[in-house]
Amino acid sequence: MGQQTIIKLVDGNLMPQLGLGVWQASNEQVVKAIHTALSVGYRSIDTAAIYHNETGVGKALRESDIPREEIFITTKLWNDRHHDAKIALQESLDRLQLDYIDLFLIHWPVPQQDKYVETWKQFIELKEAGLTRSIGVCNFHIEHLQRLFSETGIVPAINQIELHPLMQQRQLHSWNATHHIITESWSPLSRGGKGVFDHPLVESLAIKYDKTPAQIVIRWHLDSGMIAIPKSITPSRIKENFDVFDFRLEKEDLTTIARLDIGKRLGPNPDTYNLTVLNLG
């Protein structure tokens, strides 16, 4: 395997370009998955309060002999805590058993509440207090980002959005880049690769580069300047997803993958998603 690539954020902090997502994984599953990931070479873990597995993430970190400062930890503020981000972050830190996290994200803008600008002001204070090294957002559209910048003068380091070959969000990705915001892709493999891995175009690229379809798609994210956090609890898949640093896609192949974009959203639309209670059962 080649060397993991690192992205420099607008605030000067460094973030691994490929991380492990742990959505829908139990605390027990998370511990095993993180041990596998760290042994393979991952140094970035993406969790969230609403995933109910921060405790497992913390346990895995305590059991690892890798120094804390070498591991990049992201967690997120859920929609019902926009009014008290400081308390919510401290609760996450307690569950993770950490003194700080590397990246704190507003999980959704929740436009109906219209509190995300005030929340962002709290985030700026939390960064200044050293409780999080970097701050960012998830699922923010251009108009949401414009409000943050116009009312605080501070842009998020990261905008984590649904992004995969079937929904490439090129206008938003371009806007982020223009404003020095790194785009981070959630569901980068389009939830198990449905409609992507079996696409003739991706299959042909897998043959060309002697890689799996998943590795082709992850490499597309990295070569497009995005951070990707594919989720898996399967050891073989975790290893496969990381084995992408020994090749790059040629420019014409990146252009070809652009043709797969059909605007197919798998998750909620941020403009209308206002859920505060989430049943994960």
Give the topology.
Layout (H helix, E strand, L loop, with lengths): L5 E3 L5 E3 L3 E2 L5 H14 L3 E3 L7 H10 L8 E6 L7 H12 L4 E6 L9 H13 L3 E7 L3 H11 L5 E5 L7 H9 L3 E5 L3 H4 L6 H10 L3 H11 L3 E2 L6 H8 L8 H7 L24
Parallel strand pairs: 3-4, 4-5, 5-6, 6-7, 7-8, 8-9, 9-10
Antiparallel strand pairs: 1-2
Helix pairs in contact: 1-2, 1-10, 4-5, 8-9
Structure description:
- With 281 residues, the protein is of the alpha/beta class.
- It has a single domain (6-258), classed as TIM Barrel (Alpha-Beta Barrel), CATH 3.20.20.
- Helices cover 39% and strands 15% of the residues.
- It has 11 helices and 10 strands.
- The protein has helices at 27-40, 54-63, 85-96, 116-128, 142-152, 170-178, 190-193, 200-209, 213-223, 235-242, 251-257; strands at residues 6-8, 14-16, 20-21, 44-46, 72-77, 101-106, 132-138, 158-162, 182-186, 227-228.
- The strands form 2 sheets. An 8-stranded parallel β-sheet has the order 3-4-5-6-7-8-9-10.
- The termini are far apart.
- The model has no long low-confidence stretch (mean pLDDT 95).
- Substrate binds at residue 107.
- Residues 18-261 form the NADP-dependent oxidoreductase domain.
- Keywords: NADP, Oxidoreductase.
